[in-house]
Amino acid sequence: MTRLNDAAFDQLFHNARSHPTYAGKAIDAATLEELSALAGLAPTAFNQQPLRVLYVTSEEGKAKLDEAIVPGNKPKVAAAPAIAIFCYDANFVETLPKVFPIADVRGYFADPAGAAAAGQLNALIQSGMFIAAARGLGLGMGPMIGFDPAKVKELFLADNGWQPLYFSTLGYVEAQPEYDRLPRLDFEEVAKVA
Ligand SMILES: Cc1cc2nc3c(=O)[nH]c(=O)nc-3n(C[C@H](O)[C@H](O)[C@H](O)COP(=O)(O)O)c2cc1C
Protein backbone atom coordinates (compact mmCIF):
# COMPACT_ATOMS: atom_id res chain seq x y z
CA MET A 1 0.00 0.00 0.00
CA THR A 2 1.18 3.51 -0.71
CA ARG A 3 0.32 6.76 1.06
CA LEU A 4 -2.56 8.69 -0.52
CA ASN A 5 -1.66 11.98 -2.13
CA ASP A 6 -2.05 15.31 -0.33
CA ALA A 7 -5.26 16.19 -2.19
CA ALA A 8 -6.87 13.01 -0.87
CA PHE A 9 -5.87 13.83 2.72
CA ASP A 10 -7.16 17.37 2.28
CA GLN A 11 -10.54 16.06 1.14
CA LEU A 12 -10.80 13.35 3.79
CA PHE A 13 -9.40 15.29 6.75
CA HIS A 14 -7.72 18.71 6.53
CA ASN A 15 -10.53 20.48 4.66
CA ALA A 16 -13.37 18.26 5.89
CA ARG A 17 -15.69 19.97 8.34
CA SER A 18 -18.95 19.31 10.16
CA HIS A 19 -21.36 21.12 7.87
CA PRO A 20 -24.41 23.19 8.83
CA THR A 21 -25.65 23.77 5.24
CA TYR A 22 -25.34 22.19 1.80
CA ALA A 23 -26.07 22.76 -1.86
CA GLY A 24 -29.65 21.83 -2.70
CA LYS A 25 -28.66 18.86 -4.88
CA ALA A 26 -30.29 15.59 -3.84
CA ILE A 27 -28.28 12.44 -3.10
CA ASP A 28 -29.35 9.60 -5.35
CA ALA A 29 -30.21 6.09 -4.19
CA ALA A 30 -27.09 4.58 -5.78
CA THR A 31 -24.87 6.87 -3.69
CA LEU A 32 -26.67 5.89 -0.49
CA GLU A 33 -26.15 2.24 -1.45
CA GLU A 34 -22.47 2.84 -2.14
CA LEU A 35 -22.09 4.54 1.24
CA SER A 36 -23.64 1.64 3.10
CA ALA A 37 -21.50 -0.83 1.14
CA LEU A 38 -18.32 1.11 1.99
CA ALA A 39 -19.28 1.25 5.68
CA GLY A 40 -19.87 -2.50 5.50
CA LEU A 41 -16.19 -2.94 4.63
CA ALA A 42 -15.14 -1.53 8.01
CA PRO A 43 -13.46 -3.94 10.41
CA THR A 44 -15.87 -5.31 13.04
CA ALA A 45 -15.55 -8.02 15.68
CA PHE A 46 -16.40 -11.42 14.17
CA ASN A 47 -17.30 -9.37 11.07
CA GLN A 48 -20.60 -8.67 12.82
CA GLN A 49 -21.48 -5.46 10.90
CA PRO A 50 -24.14 -4.21 13.34
CA LEU A 51 -24.48 -0.73 11.78
CA ARG A 52 -27.89 0.05 10.32
CA VAL A 53 -28.66 3.41 8.71
CA LEU A 54 -32.07 5.01 8.42
CA TYR A 55 -31.86 7.50 5.54
CA VAL A 56 -34.46 10.25 5.64
CA THR A 57 -34.58 12.02 2.29
CA SER A 58 -38.23 12.92 1.61
CA GLU A 59 -39.84 16.13 2.80
CA GLU A 60 -42.51 13.96 4.42
CA GLY A 61 -39.85 11.98 6.29
CA LYS A 62 -38.01 15.12 7.39
CA ALA A 63 -41.26 16.64 8.67
CA LYS A 64 -41.89 13.48 10.69
CA LEU A 65 -38.31 13.45 12.01
CA ASP A 66 -38.53 17.09 13.11
CA GLU A 67 -40.38 16.11 16.29
CA ALA A 68 -37.35 14.11 17.46
CA ILE A 69 -34.75 16.84 16.89
CA VAL A 70 -33.72 19.33 19.60
CA PRO A 71 -34.67 22.92 18.68
CA GLY A 72 -31.10 24.08 18.01
CA ASN A 73 -30.54 21.36 15.43
CA LYS A 74 -33.87 21.65 13.58
CA PRO A 75 -32.69 24.25 11.00
CA LYS A 76 -29.74 22.04 10.00
CA VAL A 77 -32.03 19.07 9.49
CA ALA A 78 -34.53 21.12 7.49
CA ALA A 79 -31.77 22.47 5.22
CA ALA A 80 -30.12 19.13 4.45
CA PRO A 81 -30.94 16.98 1.41
CA ALA A 82 -30.55 13.81 3.49
CA ILE A 83 -30.30 12.68 7.08
CA ALA A 84 -28.51 9.48 8.08
CA ILE A 85 -29.56 8.04 11.43
CA PHE A 86 -26.89 5.69 12.65
CA CYS A 87 -28.26 2.71 14.57
CA TYR A 88 -26.96 -0.59 15.82
CA ASP A 89 -29.04 -3.70 15.33
CA ALA A 90 -29.79 -5.30 18.70
CA ASN A 91 -30.47 -8.48 16.71
CA PHE A 92 -27.14 -8.56 14.87
CA VAL A 93 -26.51 -12.00 16.37
CA GLU A 94 -29.10 -13.41 13.93
CA THR A 95 -26.92 -12.55 10.91
CA LEU A 96 -23.68 -13.90 12.42
CA PRO A 97 -24.04 -17.27 10.60
CA LYS A 98 -24.01 -15.33 7.28
CA VAL A 99 -21.19 -12.91 8.04
CA PHE A 100 -19.02 -15.27 10.12
CA PRO A 101 -19.67 -18.69 8.56
CA ILE A 102 -16.35 -20.17 9.71
CA ALA A 103 -17.57 -20.78 13.29
CA ASP A 104 -20.75 -20.44 15.33
CA VAL A 105 -19.91 -17.55 17.67
CA ARG A 106 -23.46 -16.62 18.64
CA GLY A 107 -22.84 -17.96 22.16
CA TYR A 108 -20.41 -15.12 22.84
CA PHE A 109 -23.35 -12.73 22.70
CA ALA A 110 -25.79 -14.61 24.94
CA ASP A 111 -25.66 -11.85 27.55
CA PRO A 112 -27.90 -9.02 26.23
CA ALA A 113 -25.81 -6.28 27.89
CA GLY A 114 -22.62 -7.64 26.35
CA ALA A 115 -24.29 -7.99 22.96
CA ALA A 116 -25.56 -4.39 23.15
CA ALA A 117 -22.09 -3.10 24.06
CA ALA A 118 -20.54 -5.03 21.16
CA GLY A 119 -23.23 -3.81 18.77
CA GLN A 120 -22.70 -0.18 19.78
CA LEU A 121 -18.91 -0.36 19.62
CA ASN A 122 -18.79 -1.98 16.22
CA ALA A 123 -21.57 0.16 14.74
CA LEU A 124 -19.67 3.28 15.83
CA ILE A 125 -16.49 2.00 14.16
CA GLN A 126 -18.53 1.52 11.00
CA SER A 127 -20.10 4.96 11.27
CA GLY A 128 -16.66 6.59 11.47
CA MET A 129 -15.72 4.80 8.27
CA PHE A 130 -19.05 5.93 6.80
CA ILE A 131 -18.07 9.55 7.43
CA ALA A 132 -14.71 9.03 5.72
CA ALA A 133 -16.45 7.24 2.83
CA ALA A 134 -18.90 10.11 2.41
CA ARG A 135 -16.03 12.57 2.23
CA GLY A 136 -14.33 10.34 -0.31
CA LEU A 137 -17.47 10.45 -2.45
CA GLY A 138 -17.48 14.24 -2.32
CA LEU A 139 -20.19 14.55 0.30
CA GLY A 140 -20.15 16.53 3.53
CA MET A 141 -21.69 15.52 6.82
CA GLY A 142 -22.86 17.24 9.99
CA PRO A 143 -23.02 14.68 12.81
CA MET A 144 -25.29 15.45 15.76
CA ILE A 145 -26.40 13.87 19.02
CA GLY A 146 -29.06 16.45 19.85
CA PHE A 147 -32.11 14.31 19.24
CA ASP A 148 -34.45 11.94 21.01
CA PRO A 149 -33.44 8.39 19.99
CA ALA A 150 -36.51 6.84 21.63
CA LYS A 151 -38.75 9.12 19.54
CA VAL A 152 -36.94 8.13 16.32
CA LYS A 153 -37.36 4.50 17.31
CA GLU A 154 -41.07 5.04 17.91
CA LEU A 155 -41.63 7.01 14.69
CA PHE A 156 -39.57 4.98 12.20
CA LEU A 157 -38.18 1.78 13.68
CA ALA A 158 -40.83 0.31 15.96
CA ASP A 159 -40.92 -2.96 13.99
CA ASN A 160 -37.26 -3.93 14.24
CA GLY A 161 -34.24 -4.16 16.58
CA TRP A 162 -32.50 -1.04 15.29
CA GLN A 163 -31.41 1.29 18.09
CA PRO A 164 -30.55 4.88 17.09
CA LEU A 165 -27.14 6.11 18.30
CA TYR A 166 -26.68 9.51 16.62
CA PHE A 167 -27.51 11.11 13.33
CA SER A 168 -25.94 13.24 10.65
CA THR A 169 -26.96 15.56 7.88
CA LEU A 170 -25.56 14.60 4.50
CA GLY A 171 -25.19 16.67 1.37
CA TYR A 172 -23.02 18.14 -1.34
CA VAL A 173 -20.85 20.89 0.06
CA GLU A 174 -20.99 24.30 -1.58
CA ALA A 175 -19.03 26.31 1.00
CA GLN A 176 -17.02 25.82 4.16
CA PRO A 177 -18.74 26.78 7.45
CA GLU A 178 -18.36 30.48 8.27
CA TYR A 179 -16.74 29.69 11.63
CA ASP A 180 -13.21 28.37 12.08
CA ARG A 181 -12.43 24.89 13.17
CA LEU A 182 -12.26 24.45 16.93
CA PRO A 183 -8.87 23.54 18.45
CA ARG A 184 -7.63 19.98 18.35
CA LEU A 185 -5.66 18.36 21.17
CA ASP A 186 -1.93 17.86 20.76
CA PHE A 187 -0.23 14.51 20.30
CA GLU A 188 1.06 14.56 23.90
CA GLU A 189 -2.49 14.93 25.17
CA VAL A 190 -4.01 12.11 23.16
CA ALA A 191 -1.25 9.56 22.88
CA LYS A 192 1.22 7.53 24.87
CA VAL A 193 3.90 5.52 23.19
CA ALA A 194 5.09 2.53 25.20
C1 LIG B 1 -21.38 12.41 18.01
C2 LIG B 1 -21.45 13.87 17.65
C3 LIG B 1 -22.45 14.66 18.17
C4 LIG B 1 -22.57 16.00 17.81
N1 LIG B 1 -23.67 16.71 18.22
C5 LIG B 1 -23.90 17.93 17.69
C6 LIG B 1 -25.15 18.58 17.89
O1 LIG B 1 -26.08 18.05 18.53
N2 LIG B 1 -25.33 19.81 17.33
C7 LIG B 1 -24.36 20.42 16.58
O2 LIG B 1 -24.59 21.51 16.09
N3 LIG B 1 -23.16 19.80 16.34
C8 LIG B 1 -22.92 18.58 16.88
N4 LIG B 1 -21.73 17.92 16.60
C9 LIG B 1 -20.71 18.58 15.74
C10 LIG B 1 -19.40 18.84 16.48
O3 LIG B 1 -19.51 19.98 17.28
C11 LIG B 1 -18.30 18.96 15.42
O4 LIG B 1 -18.19 17.74 14.75
C12 LIG B 1 -16.94 19.33 16.02
O5 LIG B 1 -16.98 20.58 16.65
C13 LIG B 1 -15.86 19.35 14.95
O6 LIG B 1 -16.18 20.28 13.95
P1 LIG B 1 -15.37 20.26 12.56
O7 LIG B 1 -15.63 18.91 11.93
O8 LIG B 1 -15.98 21.37 11.73
O9 LIG B 1 -13.95 20.49 12.86
C14 LIG B 1 -21.60 16.58 16.97
C15 LIG B 1 -20.56 15.77 16.46
C16 LIG B 1 -20.49 14.44 16.78
C17 LIG B 1 -19.40 13.58 16.17
UniProtKB/TrEMBL annotation:
Residues 17-172 form the Nitroreductase domain. Coiled coil: none annotated. SUPFAM superfamilies: FMN-dependent nitroreductase-like (SSF55469). This is Malonic semialdehyde reductase. It comes from the Bacteria. Pfam families: Nitroreductase (PF00881). One of its GO terms (molecular function) is oxidoreductase activity. It comes from Falsigemmobacter faecalis.
